[in-house]
Amino acid sequence: MYATPLGDDGAELRPLEPWQAEEFLAHMDRGREFIGARNGLPDVVTDLESSRAFLRLYAEKAAGDSGRIHGIWSDGTLVGAVILRQLDTKSGRAEAGCWLEPAGVGKGLVTRAARTLIDWAIEVRGIHRVEWVVSSDNEPSIAVARRLGMSRDAVLRGSYPYRGRRHDEEVWAVLAPEWRAAKSASAGAGENGA
């Protein structure tokens, strides 16, 4: 198994695969109410078979080069994930997303994990535009988009029906040249002691 360290606090980013369905279900059960406040995934992953089916869907996406899912582990426990819901190398477009259970909140894990996944999509897979689609009332996720250097491109009013109510969705995005410029500026600031 391979893992990408997300800093020096022991947090790691690893691929999530169907054989990890039990661990993924346990994670979803721990965070079901919290994650479900803004994300429909807990309504999809309800038992071991649905957990396996969800991870199998992303294994098929990875095999077809059309998506990815990576888990975020903190102190050896799966506490969240980042995904490329869509990955289209022909058009150069991808859509990223995330979630965390309460034990992972407030540690910068999603920002670090999403930064790693987006960097891979841009630098390795040649993606030009990475989008982040989020409910307008999901301030934590919007804050991540901002920290990732994304710009809000659109508000899709009333576009997302969820749990009996329509929500506005925001489309945030970063383009490859913007991503590279921000990386370069960050590296330069680090070299200058900033």
Describe this structure in words.
The N and C termini lie far apart (36 Å). The protein has one domain: Gcn5-related N-acetyltransferase (GNAT) (Aminopeptidase, 3-Layer(aba) Sandwich), CATH 3.40.630.30. It has an 8-stranded mixed β-sheet with strand order 1-2-3-4-5-6-8-7, with helices on both faces. The mean pLDDT is 93. The protein has 194 residues and is of the alpha+beta class. Helix 1 crosses helix 3. It is built from 6 helices and 8 strands, in the order E-E-H-H-H-E-E-E-H-E-H-E-E-H. Strand 4 and strand 5 form a beta hairpin. The protein is globular, with a radius of gyration of 16 Å. The chain has helices at residues 21-36, 41-44, 48-63, 109-123, 139-147, 176-191, and strands at 4-5, 12-15, 68-74, 77-88, 93-100, 129-135, 151-162, 165-175. Its EC number is 2.3.-.-. InterPro entries: Acyl_CoA_acyltransferase, GNAT_dom, Ribosomal_N-acetyltransferase. Pfam families: Acetyltransf_3. This is GNAT family N-acetyltransferase. Residues 11-178 form the N-acetyltransferase domain.
- The CATH class: Alpha Beta
Overall spatial form: globular
The overall strand count is 8
- Structural Rg: 16 Å
What class do helices, strands and sheet pairing give?
alpha+beta
What is the residue-averaged pLDDT? 93
Helix content: 25-40%
Uncertain residue ranges: none
User: Major β-sheet, in short?
Assistant: 8 strands, mixed
Briefly characterize the structure:
This protein has 194 residues and is of the alpha+beta class.
